[in-house]
Amino acid sequence: MNPSNSEVPGFSQTLPARRLTRRRLFATGISTAAAAVLGVTGYVGVRETRELSFNQVIISVRRLPHEFEGCTIAHLSDFHYDPMFSANAIREAVYRVNQLHPDIVALTGDFVTVPYFRTWHKSKPAIKAQAEPCAELLGQLRPKAGVFAVLGNHDQCSQPDVVMDSLQARGIRVLRNEAVPLQKGGNRLWVTGVDDVLEGAADLNMALRKVPSHEATILLAHEPDFADEVAEGPVDVQLSGHSHGGQIRLPLIGPPYLPELARKYPWGLRRVGELSLYTNRGLGTIEVPVRWNCPPEVTLIRLVRSGV
Question: Most exposed among 80, 92, 221, 285, judged by the fewest C-beta atoms under 10 Å?
Fold first, then answer.
């Protein structure tokens, strides 16, 4: 026989109702707290995409001619043009670089974005809609000796000629497995560039074919881990991007994801044999327009002669 409410007052009805209410309140509280954390994280992450970090780096180059002592290179990368999420960062970076009056500007690829599983974004009109406004902003760069660029994997697997033409129409020299000399006095510093490594378009031998083996050489290559191959040849400095620095860096863990060919040297200055490698964190984002503990980067590199 079931107990009546008079025998155990409030037990059969009131207590289960209280348990259910507490569980719901607890679940609601957890959901609200999680939403708040995600909201704050998302807000901070989106805000960080607009907060440029400025880094100054000195790189010693053993073969640097004395005429190029102190030569400065402004290094920008991974623009992934989007009118909402990256245009302001690119615009601000151009302004900051022009204030620095560098000798050279190096742009190491991914001017456009090709989202995964959306093949129509590879069409010529879709790529041109990104490449043209990106090139328009970057065409406002005013270094002393020129702006040099290479294509990234997103550029290479979309409409590379469209991206290249957009940049070159604004005075930006796109290096596709080739080299150009900068001359002062009777000496030269070579700026070389390879097409994208990940897409199988890079040809280092072709890029270096005109470069005398004893002359100082800077290589632009989108993927930083290509440095292991580059270090076997006569190259002094490699400038790269591709990694976004991980885009999101968790405390004590680091980036949850790094792209292929950017997992060994994902950011900053590294020494690979006799080669100096610098990996820039880039200006734009991909897939998720958020950065966390990994702000977009403008880098000013100063070349000095070894022992000076």
Answer: 92
For residue 165, the surrounding DSSP H or E stretch is helix 160-168
Residue 132: name the closest of 162, 155, 160, 154 by CA. Answer: 162
- Strand 275-279 to 237-240 pairing: parallel
Q: Where does 53-305 sit in CATH, by number?
A: 3.60.21.10
What contacts 110, CB < 8 A, 6 or more positions away?
Answer: 77, 78, 79, 80, 152, 153, 154, 155, 222, 241, 242, 282, 284
d(CA 157, CA 198): 10
pTM of the predicted structure, to 2 decimals: 0.85
Give the single-character DSSP code of 197.
T
User: What is the mean pLDDT of each successive set of 10 residues along the chain, which is 308 residues long?
Assistant: 40 38 37 36 49 96 97 98 96 98 98 82 93 98 98 97 98 98 96 98 98 97 98 98 97 95 98 98 94 96 86
